[in-house]
Structure formats: structure tokens, C-alpha cells
Amino acid sequence: VCLNWSSGQHPLVQNQTVTEGRTAIMTCRVEYNDQTSLQWSNPTQQTLFFGNKKALRDNRIELVRASWSELTISISEITLADEGMYTCSLFTMPVKTAKAYLTVLGVPEKPEIDGLTKPALEGDEITLTCMTHGSKPAANLRWFRNEKEIKGAKEVNASGKTFTVTSSLQLLVDRDDDGAAYTCKVDHVALLQTPQQTTEVLEVHYAPRVLITQSLTFPQEGQYLKLECVSKGNPSPDPVLWTKDGGELPDLERMIVQGRELTFSALNKTDNGTYRCVASNHLGTSSAEYILYVYDPNAMGQRGPDHALIGGVVAVVVFVTLCLIIFLGRYLARHKGTYLTNEAKGADDAPDADTAIINAEGNTHAEGKKEYFI
């Protein structure tokens, strides 16, 4: 708030900032007044009040307080046209004046989001545009994806006393965007308590992807088995198609298809084979395979094939490790003995162990030569 004041018989006023549509209070005071009249005038120099007498026929303008030391008026339903310099005059000789500037904040309209294609296709490039009109000063636009802020490209255009603000967001549509909420929020000094925002939910269509899950890791004869075709696509790929070894399911009494599930009431060896699940929508087709091998429970035993296999591998690893330890131990022991023997042979005249070895080897060669010439 800016003050324009002086002591004595001089009017004192304050600059005012008011949001569009609200009420402005304009006050003019005099510290020492010898019963001289006060007057308020608008930016076009039209007299609003002279003392307690209304001069301009405007129902929005009312008297709040009038005395020799103060003249206060109110202007309701403020518009941008009311903005400007207001003058308080003290009719002394000469007339003394003080000026107060009334700033009107333009309230931005609720933002609108354009460019949303419903539905969008995976792989599409789309541009979302958020726009708001009527702000003064220019508003700020912020984008959020599921409450996480993301950056857009801002553009500001003046329109009279107000501004039109636009923010664009470019997207390469992915299946993860399906159901994502994109929100455009307006930040402005006139919206501190009532923020404006708009949200659009993105719908994305994409081809299916398929995965088969099984209820048993090692299915055995006589057991119940369930295979589920987990397919995700938009639109939803229903129904799915089950086949065995490239053809139709052979035994529909034991092999029951319910929705995405294929169940076997009691497995037997004839069920062995490759099972395929196929899911389709208008954007594409996807499939997954599961190779079923039915184990003989008598051959597996109570521990199961996994325990037998693991036990065999562990036994082989332990055996090989022991063999290596024994071999290395014998090898090191033999070489250590040779080293000690040679060291003893040359130790008499040698200053260290290495020299002793060399001397010992030399003596050996010499003796060999001696025996050769005898």
C-alpha cells in the first residue's frame, strides 16, 4: 500500500487494490481542518461526493462517513473500468489535493482443456491446450498428471485490459496413460482462496498383451490344474481362445473353459502338450503358450523332482571338491619336500635358502660328471 500524505491542512489518502466484483473503500482524512469541505472525484474528474452530498448518480457509490476531518465512500461491484486515479480535494485557498490509485484485479475464468481425443490410441501424439481468459495481471497455468506437476509451454496475449493465457502439453500416448487424470490449474493473486482448475481423464485404446499363469509347478496325474490367461488390453479382449497343439481342446468333459480360465479336473498323461491362449481386440492379437507335462506321482516320490535334482547336483559338487582338495594337498607336499632336501644339501656355504638350492643343484651336476668320467 502506497501512502501520499502530509501534516497540517492537507488531505491524506491511500492507494487501493480491489478484485473485480468486490467493493472498494476510498478514505480521505485531514489532520487539521478549519471546517473546509472535502470532495472525492473519479479518474474522469467527475465529482462523486462533496462533503455528505452525492454528486454522481451511480447506485454503486455510497457514503460511508462524512465529517470535517474525513470523507469515506464505497464503490461496490467494481469493474475494470473503475480503475484509475481518484482525487480528494480540500477546498482551502488554494485548493489542496491528494491522489489515490485504484487498481482492479481481473479474475481469470475457469480454464478449459482442448485437444483431448476420446479415445486416444497407443502411440498417438496429441497436444493438450489449457486456456483461461480475463486475468489481470496475467495468470499462471500449471499442469498436473495424477497430482504430479509437469511442465507445459506458456503463451500470454493481451486483450484490452485483461490477458488470455494458454499452456500447451505435448504427449506421446502410452498404455500407462489410460485412466490418467490431467489437471490444469490457474494461479492468480485474485484466486488465493478459490483456485480455478479443470481435469480431464485420458482414455487410451491399445492392443492386448497375454500371460499364462498356472496353479501347480509340477502337475501330477490325478491332480486339479488351473491355467489362467491374463490378458490386458483396451477394449478388453473378451473372450479368449484356448487351443492344444494347434487344434481344439480334445476332452471338454475334463478340460473346462470358464472366461479366461482353463481347468483340468483330473490330469493324466494324455494332457501333455502345448496350450495356447489367444486374445484379440480391434487393435491387434496377442498369444502366450504353456507346455504341460504331467508327472507320475510314483516316479517322483514324496520329495518331488526338484529335491531329487538338487540332491544329485549337490552330491556331484561335493565329490569334485574333495578330489581337488586331495590332489592339491599331495602336490604341495611333494614339492615342499624337494625344496627342503635341496636346501639342506647346499646350506653349508649358502647365505640363504635360495642360494642353498642353487649350490645343491650344482653339486649334483658335479657329482654326476665325476661318476661319468670314472
UniProtKB/TrEMBL annotation:
What residue stretches are annotated with the Ig-like domain?
11-103, 111-200, 208-293
Query: Can you tell me which residues the record assigns to a coiled coil?
Result: none
What keywords sit in the KW lines? Disulfide bond, Immunoglobulin domain, Membrane, Repeat, Signal, Transmembrane, Transmembrane helix
Assigned GO CC terms: membrane
Bilayer topology reads: Single-pass type I membrane protein
Q: Which domain of life is it from?
A: Eukaryota
| Pfam families cross-referenced by the UniProt entry | C2-set_2, Ig_3, V-set
**Cell compartment(s), UniProt:** Membrane
Q: Mind listing the GO biological process terms from this record?
A: homophilic cell adhesion via plasma membrane adhesion molecules
The protein depicted here goes by the name Ig-like domain-containing protein
Chain segments annotated as transmembrane: 308-328
Question: By its UniProt entry, which InterPro entries does this protein fall under?
Answer: CD80_C2-set, Ig-like_dom, Ig-like_dom_sf, Ig-like_fold, Ig/MHC_CS, Ig_sub, Ig_sub2, Ig_V-set
Family the UniProt entry places it in: Belongs to the nectin family.
Checking PROSITE patterns in the record gives:
IG_LIKE (PS50835), IG_MHC (PS00290)
Family annotation (SMART domains): 4.1m, IG, IGc2
**Species name for this entry?**
Oncorhynchus mykiss
